[in-house]
Amino acid sequence: MTDSLSQLTATPIVERPEPDWPVLSRIPIQGSDEPLVPLSLAPAPIKVFPVYAKQSVPGAVNECYVREGVYRRLLRVARSLPEGMGLIILDGWRPWRVQQYLFDTLQEAIRAHHPELDQESLLTRTREFVSVPSREPEAPSPHLTGGAVDVTLSDADGLPLNMGTLFDEAVPASHTAYFENREALSETQRQVRDNRRLLYAVMYEAGFTNLPSEWWHYDSGDQLWAHYGQHERAIYGPAELATVESRWRRQI
User: Structure pTM?
Assistant: First the structure.
């Protein structure tokens, strides 16, 4: 392990509380006209794998879009990685339809496995991994703003590093700091812990914050970012993808 890699993986990930969504939704949003830009334009070592389109999720787009400021931060992250490593972008901006599908699908899966849960407990369990679908200007779902992004790391051959769980796996081990306070880690678990530390370190250095329940989810400019970064206001509200139809409607 190189000295730079050792430094990046030396600091434990701080275990943070889950967001208080009602409080978070009251954080004011400044608003921004930054466009959504496609990450497939980015040079190596960024790779784009729009996972929901690959999985044929209804309404998913075959691209990963983020706000321009987020795009540039991700370039900083990728360029700061140790030689031979890459950054894989799995998801960014989502259409509302995709957010609704993910929320409904996870909620039904939890309900089927835990029929004893009341409606409030079911909502809490679902929100642990998928936020409530919202296009409200004052409280949009993070991925609808273009400020949230799902990422992982790759090796020199372009394959994802072992992060301990699959992307979107709704289990306790997906919590970012899960391996930090566990005793007697195996060699594989120590490597997973260090992979998560590396991703966490380079993302935070570039100005992102992390959602504690998802090792893959990072934010810049949205209300989650404002909450965990202790900013007085968010930058990004809900965003829509510019299309030929939408431009024509504005222009004519």
Answer: 0.93
Q: Are 131 and 107 in contact (CB under 8 A)?
A: no
Q: How many helices (H) and strands (E) does the chain have?
A: 9, 7
Return the axis-axis angle of helices 68-80 and 187-205, rounded to nearest 10°.
130
Residue 119 to residues 111, 112, 114, 123, Cα–Cα distance (Å): 9, 13, 11, 6
Amino acid 237 reads G
What tokens appear for 190 in the block?
Answer: 């120590």
Active site residues: 214
At 78-123, the pLDDT tens digits run: 999 999 999 999 999 999 999 999 999 999 999 999 999 999 999 9
For residue 227, which phi and psi values (nearest 5 degrees)? -65, -55
What is the CA 220 to chain-centroid distance, rounded?
10
Give dist(CA 37, CA 183) in Å, integer: 43
